[in-house]
């Protein structure tokens, strides 16, 4: 299996109370099992989210079945994912350059240790 690493960025509303609430939703003990299953079913092997201030950075390891388009179609067809996404929009902001409805934007790799 050939794993591939993808990195995305998203912003949060710059409100300390909302940021703490967002962190609570993402704590291991609060993970929605349906969301975890949806992530794994889409071909995501591993996923981590980091935060600095109100900027989020997501690293995903994906298998050969993963494509952003396939994940988007799966998410659109999953009512629980749609519920989660609606909930998360109260915390998340589209980063600069995002199109309407986008919040997680792919990052371009510009350096890798030789």
TrEMBL record:
InterPro entries: Carb_Metab_Mutarotase, Dimeric_a/b-barrel, Rham/fucose_mutarotase. It comes from the Bacteria. Gene3D superfamilies: 3.30.70.100. It holds the Pfam family rhaM. This is L-rhamnose mutarotase. It comes from Flavobacterium flavipallidum. The lineage of its organism: Bacteria, Pseudomonadati, Bacteroidota, Flavobacteriia, Flavobacteriales.
